[in-house]
Amino acid sequence: MGFFAKTKQRASAFGAALKTHLHNDRLKRADVLLAHRIVARRRSPTLRQWHLVGRVLTQSEKRIIKVAGYAVLAGLLLISLRWTLMHAALAPASGGEYREGIVGSVRAVNPILAGGNDVDQDIAHLVYSGLYRRDADAQLALDLAQSVDISSDGKTYTFILKPGVKFHDGQAVTANDVVFTVNTIMDPAWKSPLAKGLQGVTALARDPQTVVISSSVPNAYLPSLLTFGILPEHIWKNVDPKTASSGSFNLKPVGSGPFEFEKFSRDGSGNITSYTLHSAPGSGAMLDRITFKFYGDYGSAADALSGNIVDGLNFVPPTERDSIGSVPNMVMHASALSQYTALFLNQKNDPALADVSVRQALAFGIDRDRIIKNALNGLGALRDAPIADDAPGVVHYPYDPKAAAALLDKAGYVIDPETKIRTKTETQKPASKNQQPTTKTSELTVTITTVDTDENKRAAAIIKDSWTALGIKTDIITAPAASINTSVIRPREYDALLMGEVLALDADPYPFWHSSQTVSGQNLAMYSNRLVDELLEKARIAATKADRDALLDQFQQIITTDEPAIFLYQPDYLYPQSSKISGYDVRSVTAPADRFANVTMWYRKLKLIFK
C-alpha cells in the first residue's frame, strides 16, 4: 500500500474514533443532565432512568452503594429475625414415635389379670382407663368419671361417667361396663389378683352414665383400688374364664385409654419381639406411636439404647446410672418411688429376734447412709417408717454403734474374747428336783435372705459389715426372683428378709401389718400386736381423712418402737430417655407403669408458632 493510501486510512479511522468519542461524550452529558433533572425535580426515577445511573457513577461510588445495599439488607434481616424471636416460639407438634426397650415379655394385656407381670401392666396402663388414675405426683385423680359423690357413712361411691367416651372399637363406655368389670374381678373362676382387695364390694348401674360402687363396711382406701382398667362388656361377656388368660383380646386389647393396639411382631420361635400402639382418636396424645421392644436381659436392652435402636428403657438399676448416663443425648429422669426397702425380722424363725432390744440394736447398727451411697449410687432417701417419716411419734434409728452395743449388752449378748462374736449364756431350770440347773450358750447369728440383684447384694454386704463390727455373726443367702416367693416367702424360711414393699400414701397398710396376714398374707415380719390390729381395722372405716391419719400415726409409733422390721431406704425410680423425647414430668410413681402418667404430653416434633 502506498503512502497516500495509508494516510487516507489513518484519517478515516481517526474520524470514526472522533465521532464515537463525541457520541459517548454527548451520551454522558445527557446522562448527567438526566440525573440533574431527576434531582432538581425531586421525583422518583423510572426503571429506564435507574438503568442509566450506572453510567454516571465512578467505580468507587459503585462500591460504596453496593456496601450500603448489603448493610441495608443485613439490617432488614436482623429486624426480621428480632421480630420473629419476639413474636414466635417453638411448640410441641403432633407426630413421631417413641421406642422403649423392656426387659421381659408380654403375656396378657388385661387390667384384671396383669398383676403379676410389669410388662402387661405397662401396656394395660396405656390401653385402658379406670374410674381413677394416678397423676404425675402419684395422687389419685378422676379418669373415666367426671364426678364422684361419697355417702356420709363412707360405704357408697356414686360415679357420673364422662359423656362421649368410647372404646377403641367405637362402642360407648357405659356404667354396665364398669359393673361387668367389677363382677368379673370378684368371680373366683377368673382368679383375678384384684379380688382380695375388693372383698365386700358391689357395683350397680343406675343409668348408662351412673354407676354406684358400694362396700359392706366403710372403706377409706377404696378409691386407691379403683384404678384398674374397665373392660368392654360386649367383648368379654361370652369369654370362658377357664380360657380367658389365653384369649386373643389379651394380646389385641380393646380399651378406652390414650393409646390403642396396632400390631405386634414375633420371631421364628413365636416369641413376641415388639408391640406397637398408636394414639387413639380424641386422646390428645402428641406422639403417633409407642413401640415396645422386648429383651431377655438388662445388658441387651442397654445395648439397644446405646445403639439408638430404642429411645428409652423401662428401668435402670442404680448401679448402672453412670454407664447409661454416659450414652450421648440421653436424659436420666429420677422419680420418687412409693416403695420402701426393709429388713423384715422373723421372730418365729430366730428366737433372738423376739427380744425388742436386739431388734432395736440391729437397727442402730446399720449404716444406711453407706447403703444409699454405695448400693443405690446415691439415688434414694432414708426411711424410718412404713408410711411417712414425719408422722408424730415415729422413732428414728440413726447409725449409732455405741447405742447398738449398749442394747445388745442389755439383752445379755456380750463379746466372746476368743471368737469376737456376741454370745448369751442362759441358765435353764432342771426338769426335776434331783437334777442340777444347766447353762446354754448361744451365738447371736442372723442370716439375711434377699433377691439376687446387684442392689440387694450390695446392701446386704454393707449390713453384714456393720453387724460383724458389732460382734454379730451374719450370713447372706440370695435367691432368684422367680423362685423366692415359693421357696422362701410363702414357707417363711428366713431370719431377716431384705425386700421392697410398695405402699403409697393413700394405700392400706392392713395387708402388710395385720396379724391375720402372717400365714398367707404380706405380713413378712410375722408381726402380731392386738393394738395395731385395732388401729388398722378402725383406719379402714374412718369417716374422714383426718380421723384415719390420726389412727395411722399411732400405728406408726408402735411399729417403729417395736421395730419388727428395720426400715432402710426409699429408692428412686430411674427412667432414661433420649433427648429427642420431651414432655416427661412425672415426679412420683407407685409402680413403674405410673411413668406414663403424663404420656399424652410427650412429644418428639416441634413447630413454629406466632404469638
Task: Describe the protein.
With 611 residues, the chain is an alpha+beta fold. It folds into three domains: 22-89, no CATH class; 97-311 and 580-610, D-Maltodextrin-Binding Protein, domain 2 (3-Layer(aba) Sandwich), CATH 3.40.190; 337-427 and 438-571, Roll (Dipeptide-binding Protein, domain 3). It is 33% helix and 24% strand. The chain contains 17 helices and 24 strands. The strands form six sheets. Strands 13, 14, 15, 19, 20, 21, 22 and 23 form an eight-stranded mixed beta sheet that branches. Strands 9-10-11-2-12 form a five-stranded mixed beta sheet. α11 runs antiparallel to α13 (454-469). The chain starts with a helix and ends with a strand. The relative contact order is 0.13. The mean pLDDT is 88.
Quick recap of the structure?
By secondary structure, this protein is α+β, with helices and mostly antiparallel strands.
Total number of domains:
3
What percentage of residues falls in helices of 4 or more residues?
25-40%
Strand content: 15-25%
Global shape: globular
- CA-to-CA gap between the ends? 86 Å
CATH topology (fold) name of the largest domain: D-Maltodextrin-Binding Protein, domain 2
Unreliable spans? none
| DSSP E strands, number | 24
Global structural class: alpha+beta
Can you identify the CATH superfamily of the largest domain?
Periplasmic binding protein-like II
* CATH architecture identity of the largest domain: 3-Layer(aba) Sandwich
Question: Mean pLDDT, rounded to whole units?
Answer: 88
**Number of helices, counting only DSSP H or I runs of 4 residues or more:** 17
The value of Rg in angstroms is 39 Å
Q: What does the largest sheet look like?
A: 8 strands, mixed
Q: What's the CATH C level of the largest domain?
A: Alpha Beta
